[in-house]
């Protein structure tokens, strides 16, 4: 079975972030993990932490450039450091699903993506028209 790790990049958009978090929580197929990479102010970070606690998500601080790429790189580094190196997830069996703090997934989004995983597939691009 493939792991799907959801990664949310956020920066100081609490009301949008709450909707995004809820859309992940409500998935028919839940992600293996949800990592929130925050580049928010200290005050907003505390609010984000309580939202993450409510949904059982992991929250980390952006450790790199303070931009979208820095958020994603921080999350990927965290996954490698805490989960891959410790043998908790197999990178060959793991997909990353990225979304911004203003994105909302339909309830079947991860289910639809997981149904398209086949041997030899490295990535899936979804939601493009």
Structure description:
α2 links the parallel β2 and β3. The chain has 129 residues and is of the alpha/beta class. The mean pLDDT is 91. The protein has helices spanning 14-25, 42-55, 68-84, 109-115, and strands spanning 3-10, 33-38, 58-61, 94-100. A four-stranded parallel beta sheet has the order 3-2-1-4, with helices on both faces. It has one domain: Spore Coat Polysaccharide Biosynthesis Protein SpsA, Chain A, CATH 3.90.550.
CATH class wording = Alpha Beta
Overall structural domain count: 1
Oligomer: single chain
Q: Give the terminus-to-terminus CA distance.
A: 28 Å
| Poorly predicted ranges | none
Large-scale geometry: globular
Physical arrangement of strands within the biggest beta sheet: 3-2-1-4
CATH fold call? Spore Coat Polysaccharide Biosynthesis Protein SpsA, Chain A
How would you describe this structure in keywords?
four-stranded parallel beta sheet, Spore Coat Polysaccharide Biosynthesis Protein SpsA, Chain A, alpha/beta, globular, 19% strand, single chain, 129 residues, 4 helices
Short overview:
By secondary structure, the chain is of the alpha/beta class. The protein has four helices and four strands; from the N terminus they run βαβαβαβα. β1 (3-10), α1 (14-25) and β2 form a beta-alpha-beta unit.
Topology:
Blueprint: E1 3-10, H1 14-25, E2 33-38, H2 42-55, E3 58-61, H3 68-84, E4 94-100, H4 109-115
Parallel strand pairs: 1-2, 1-4, 2-3
Helix pairs in contact: 1-2
């Amino acid at each position: 079975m493939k792991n799907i790790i959801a990664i949310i990049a956020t920066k100081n958009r609490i009301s949008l972030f709450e909707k995004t978090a809820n859309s992940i929580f409500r998935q028919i197929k839940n992600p293996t993990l949800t990592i929130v990479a925050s580049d928010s102010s200290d005050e907003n970070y505390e609010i984000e932490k309580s939202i993450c606690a409510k949904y059982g998500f992991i929250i980390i601080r952006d450790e790199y450039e303070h931009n979208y790429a820095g958020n994603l790189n921080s999350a990927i580094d965290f996954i490698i450091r805490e989960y891959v190196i410790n043998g908790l997830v197999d990178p060959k069996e793991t997909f990353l699903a990225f979304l911004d703090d203003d994105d909302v997934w339909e309830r079947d989004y991860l289910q639809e993506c997981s149904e398209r995983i086949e041997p030899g597939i490295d990535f899936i691009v979804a939601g493009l028209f």
